[in-house]
Design goal:
heterodimer; A: alpha/beta; Rossmann fold; Alpha-Beta Plaits; 11 strands; B: 5 helices; 6 strands
């Protein structure tokens, strides 16, 4: 059986956390970092990992570590340009199967995609977006943007007295570009069909297209009329 | 001298090299914009430099857009970091579709990447080696 080979370049806590998780999954991990004391610490902590100290964008380091044909390459250096070049080297010259990188400037997610690096993660973007959504939408417990927010996933708990209580999915007036993908009831998950009835305290996991979010949330949270008018 | 041209040139990085290229082009009558993140570096431009200077970090695409790099006919990426020069060159040629992009690199081991992405590069360390070898050859 061939080992799954992962290369992690840059990052301190993130690299440490990732290495820990990957080694637990019996993967072969190579770490590259430009800080010597961090490298020493990592080599003591993970005796099975290969740790190299140096500039993570230098091809000779990749050659020394034999990263060619590795399964995954992850670049998490502070400079976006360094991450781009490292990923391109890994992908084009060293034929690594899958490359990931983080960026500090959220605009670079799109730019890097246009330059051929499709797995780009901007924590600034993800966190800012989550906070914005959680702060502006009441009753929403969780929000996950997919494809830069073109598609989104939300979790909401059905409140007592809302219009959707005791109604079947097919009777609901939710936007066309949205679905209730899953219902969590008493800890059990249900994949709903048109005749599945919604009860108070159900947790709904909904998927929607950009632009139908507000309409969806208001449909899910709208109170029964006599509750509003009392 | 005094050559009239309507070409727009952007030099990114006002290093010794960048400043000299920009100054020479400017005195040749070419419209030049120089970008650098440090305003002080523009002092290296010649006294008669008549182009534009733009302060900004070229690693940020907003700087490139604001300095209208997308309208340029020629972009010269000569910051002191190879990776930034390479990234700028890729953005200019592949996203902004600039006709001609030139990139300075110090580290010859990045050459395969330049070839892979059709980046026109000038490897300054290699050029120095050639010159040194010539000089050595003539005295030994």
């Amino acid at each position: 059986m061939s080992l799954y080979r992962v290369v992690v370049v840059g990052g301190r806590k993130k690299a440490d956390f990732l290495a820990n998780a990957l080694i637990k999954r019996k993967m072969h991990v190579s770490l590259i970092n430009d800080t010597e004391d961090f490298c020493v610490e990592m080599s003591h902590k993970y005796p099975d990992a290969i740790v190299a100290c140096g500039d993570g964008t230098k091809p000779f380091l990749y050659e020394d570590l034999h990263i060619e044909n590795s399964d995954i390459f992850i670049a998490m250096m502070p400079s976006d340009a360094d991450n781009l070049i490292a990923c391109q080297l890994a992908k084009q010259i060293f034929k690594v199967k899958k490359v990931f990188c983080t960026v500090s400037n959220p605009k670079n997610v799109e730019i890097f995609k246009m330059l051929g690096i499709s797995n780009v993660i901007s924590s600034t973007y993800i966190v800012a977006n989550m906070i914005e959504q959680l702060a502006t939408l009441r009753n929403i417990e969780n929000y996950i943007p997919i494809e830069q927010g073109k598609v989104g996933l939300i979790e909401t708990v059905v409140e007592e007295g809302t219009q959707i209580c005791f109604k079947a999915i097919s009777e609901l007036n939710i936007p066309k570009q949205s679905i209730i993908a899953c219902i969590i009831r008493n800890g059990e998950s249900i994949i709903p069909k048109g005749d599945t009835v919604i009860y108070p305290q159900d947790k709904l996991v909904c998927l929607f297209n950009d632009g139908s979010k507000e309409e969806l949330v208001s449909a899910l949270c709208k109170k029964e009329r006599h509750h509003v008018n009392h | 001298m005094g050559r009239i041209s309507n070409k727009q040139v952007v030099v990114i990085g006002c290093s010794r090299l960048g400043a000299t290229i920009a100054s020479r082009m400017s005195s040749d009558g070419i419209a030049v914009t120089v970008i650098d993140k440090d305003e002080d570096s523009f002092r290296k431009l010649s006294d008669d430099f008549s182009g534009y200077t733009y302060v900004g970090d070229a690693e940020n695409i907003q700087t490139l857009t604001d300095a209208r790099v997308d309208q340029a006919d020629l972009v010269i990426a000569v910051t002191d970091k190879d990776n930034i020069n390479l990234m700028i060159s890729e953005i200019c040629s592949r996203i902004f579709k600039v006709d001609k992009v030139l990139c300075r690199i110090y580290d010859s081991s990045k050459e395969p990447l330049c070839q892979q992405y059709n980046i026109d590069f000038i490897d300054t360390s290699k050029l120095s080696v050639v010159e040194f070898e010539k000089a050595i050859g003539s005295c030994i």
